[in-house]
């Protein structure tokens, strides 16, 4: 029933695809986090000029499917080919890898900003009052009291977001990239070993997922090691 | 604002199919969620094991892989089995059915966790009181447990629905003519991909916002008659 030969033969190719999956995940996560921090702070501002754009960005990228965001950037940019060429940017937007990373980065940036916002708001008021009473400036208060506490509160949810993003990278296979899912599709079109290859792919994703979960739990324990 | 060149109706046709796939998947997800939470909370070891395996595996695999596995894998599996019995058949799974099965199966795992939390937050004394009054298990479940669990589960189920409706966009990959696929047709025909994908994204955003409002109303309705609101 299951043809183990076909799995064994194609495992190296699948692992190569997994490498691209991890690469895109890490790049998007890092840039996404760099975007998320200022947007989370803007979202908490009392000035409409700051919170409104942040609110719109977060709502749009959390309220629409990632697949649409991906197509909007990859296929949608074609509508402005002339303008992008004049700016010297067309080379980037023609590239599936670039568009995939941009879409995933903007997407995870919005989700991460929302997680951070919730965590910053969940920092106990007493901690902030105490910091103020000590005469800390706003910047010092954020650096020493609010952000360290918020990171601990956000950590478990951020771990979930990392897992979701890693799995979401599978969509880049739709725009021709050869990540784990893309490689699997290509192998199946040659061998017709549908469930052998897809089940092997699923197992590889499971392994990556629970490796991420394991690492995040270990770090969580370290973050909270001062607590009994 | 948008020059749709007469393709607006096409997108609306797609929207109805998106909503139809979404609702059928949600029904399946709720059914699987109730079943899964019952299995997780039961004293039967095998039921525990099966339910834990279900939620662990589904949460570890991308939606796209599961969708492709259902759409291409199930027909292949049936054909292979038929071949063993000496029948040569070719079957295709209908994309609507494949999409509903795959998405319902995935979000059933998330609903399982929602319902498990909901049933756990009902005081055990409630069930004891119902049993003491002579209700059988089924009646106690229907009259006492389920109405309260539904109230506790509503916020979580609302979240599941909002993620699920966005996941239906994936079914366009297996050629179901829902919103996303109709958008692709319109984008290619008019050579205005940005305009049409932006419009499609705003329609999805509208679905999300409407769902949020409905969720608030549903929670108010479910909590009517509850003290301390």
UniProtKB/TrEMBL annotation, chain B:
GO CC terms: ATP-binding cassette (ABC) transporter complex
Pfam short name (any one): BPD_transp_1
Signal peptide extent: none
GO biological-process terms attached to the record: amino acid transport
Membrane topology of this protein: Multi-pass membrane protein
Domain ABC transmembrane type-1, first and last residues per copy: 15-215
InterPro entries the record matches: AA_ABC_transptr_permease_3TM (IPR010065), ABC_transp_permease_HisMQ (IPR051613), MetI-like (IPR000515), MetI-like_sf (IPR035906)
Compartment(s) of residence: Cell inner membrane; Cell membrane
Keyword Transmembrane on entry: yes
Name of the protein: ABC transporter permease
Organism: Sedimenticola thiotaurini
């Amino acid at each position: 029933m299951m043809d183990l030969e076909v799995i064994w033969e194609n495992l190296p190719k699948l692992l190569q695809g997994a490498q691209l999956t991890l690469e895109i995940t890490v790049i998007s996560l890092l840039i996404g986090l760099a975007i998320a921090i200022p947007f989370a702070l803007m979202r908490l501002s009392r000035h409409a000029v700051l919170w409104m754009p942040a609110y719109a960005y977060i709502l749009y990228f959390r309220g629409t499917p990632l697949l649409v965001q991906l197509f909007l950037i990859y296929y949608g940019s074609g509508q402005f080919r002339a303008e992008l060429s004049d700016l010297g940017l067309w080379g980037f937007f023609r590239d599936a890898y670039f568009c995939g990373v941009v879409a995933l980065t903007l997407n995870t940036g919005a989700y991460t900003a929302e997680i951070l916002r919730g965590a910053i708001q969940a920092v106990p008021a007493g901690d902030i009052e105490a910091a103020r009473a000590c005469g800390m400036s706003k910047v010092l208060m954020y650096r020493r009291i609010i952000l360290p506490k918020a990171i601990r509160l956000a950590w478990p949810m951020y771990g979930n977001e990392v897992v979701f993003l890693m799995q979401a990278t599978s969509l880049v296979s739709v725009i021709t990239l050869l990540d784990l899912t893309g490689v699997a599709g290509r192998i199946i079109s040659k061998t017709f070993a549908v469930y052998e290859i897809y089940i092997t792919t699923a197992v590889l994703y499971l392994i990556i997922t629970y490796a991420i979960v394991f690492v995040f739990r270990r770090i969580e324990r370290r973050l909270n090691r001062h607590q009994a | 604002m948008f020059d749709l060149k007469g393709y607006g109706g096409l997108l609306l046709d797609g929207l109805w199919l998106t909503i139809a796939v979404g609702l059928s998947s949600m029904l399946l997800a709720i059914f699987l969620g109730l079943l899964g939470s019952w299995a997780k909370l039961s004293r039967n070891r095998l039921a525990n094991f099966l339910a834990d395996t279900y939620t662990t595996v589904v949460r570890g695999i991308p939606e796209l892989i599961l969708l492709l596995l259902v759409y291409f894998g199930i027909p292949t599996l049936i054909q292979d089995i038929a071949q063993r019995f000496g029948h040569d058949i070719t079957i295709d799974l209908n994309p609507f059915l494949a999409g509903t099965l795959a998405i319902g199966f995935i979000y059933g795992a998330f609903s399982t966790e929602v319902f498990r939390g909901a049933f756990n937050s009902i005081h055990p004394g409630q069930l004891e009181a119902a049993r003491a009054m002579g209700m059988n298990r089924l009646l106690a479940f229907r009259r006492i447990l389920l109405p309260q669990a539904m109230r506790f589960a509503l916020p979580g189920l609302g979240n599941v629905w909002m993620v699920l409706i966005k996941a239906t966009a994936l079914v366009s990959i297996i050629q179901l003519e829902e919103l996303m696929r109709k958008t692709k047709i319109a984008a290619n025909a008019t050579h205005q991909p940005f305009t049409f994908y932006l419009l499609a994204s705003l329609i999805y955003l509208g679905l999300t916002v409407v769902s949020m409002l409905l969720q608030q109303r549903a929670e108010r309705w479910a909590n009517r008659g509850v003290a301390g609101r």
